[in-house]
């Protein structure tokens, strides 16, 4: 399958590999049904493996810079 994928995908999508699909499915299941459901779907014995290796993490962190804003009393 990996050879077929390499042959079929354009160069700008070279980052896609079979594991990408597994990670996408895990993330979607986790978003809707929770980490335990995603972990069970993937056949993991622990949610730790699912959390560390499969679930997508937010690329942008929340903006907390307003905590440092000057506010005269």
TrEMBL record:
Keywords: DNA recombination. It comes from the Bacteria. InterPro entries: DNA_brk_join_enz, Integrase-like_cat_sf. One of its GO terms (biological process) is DNA integration. One of its GO terms (molecular function) is DNA binding. The keyword RNA-binding does not apply. This is Tyr recombinase domain-containing protein. The lineage of its organism: Bacteria, Bacillati, Actinomycetota, Actinomycetes, Mycobacteriales.
């Amino acid at each position: 399958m990996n050879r077929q994928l390499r042959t079929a995908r354009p160069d700008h999508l070279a980052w896609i590999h079979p594991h990408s699909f597994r990670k996408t499915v895990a993330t979607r299941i986790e978003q809707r049904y929770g980490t335990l459901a995603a972990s069970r779907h993937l056949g993991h014995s622990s949610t730790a493996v699912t959390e560390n290796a499969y679930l997508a993490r937010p690329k942008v962190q929340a903006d907390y810079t307003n905590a440092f804003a000057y506010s005269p009393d």
